[in-house]
Amino acid sequence: MLFNRLNSNVDIFEKALDASWLRNEIISGNIANADTPKYKRKDVEFEKILADAVNSKNKKKLENVKPRIVVKNDNLQTRIDENNVDIDVEMVEMVKNSIRYNTLISQVSHEFKRINIVLNNTR
């Protein structure tokens, strides 16, 4: 039972790390296309998808959680060239994502330490 819970936590962290890595790639793409006419900024939806799966009674839903790339048209600052990328926003998002990624790495490290303690105590 305990190992299942620990394994489940590691699986969730793995999915979150994958989503954070993808988000970094998407943000980099947004920055690279900041001067491309008609380019629309993209983002990654993950946190709500994960929360819905975790809160679901159907635990199989958690296995199918995957980040989703979405085009964001909610920026009211579309330029004349119809590009809606704001470099300042993207840089802030990149910093936030880096902090999120590093926090997740710390949590994974802590989780593996917990697993190691459990394994050492069962010997």
Give descriptors for this structure.
single chain, 123 residues, mainly alpha, two-stranded antiparallel ribbon, 4 helices, 2 strands
Could you explain how this protein is built, in words?
- With 123 residues, the chain is mainly alpha-helical.
- The protein is 64% helix and 7% strand.
- It has helices at 2-32, 47-55, 60-63, 87-121, and strands at residues 42-45, 68-71.
- The protein has a two-stranded antiparallel ribbon.
- The two termini are 17 Å apart.
The percent range for strand residues is 5-15%
Please tell me the total number of domains: 1
Order of neighbouring strands in the sheet with most strands: 1-2
Q: Rg to the nearest angstrom?
A: 18 Å
pLDDT < 50 stretches? none
* Number of H/I helices: 4
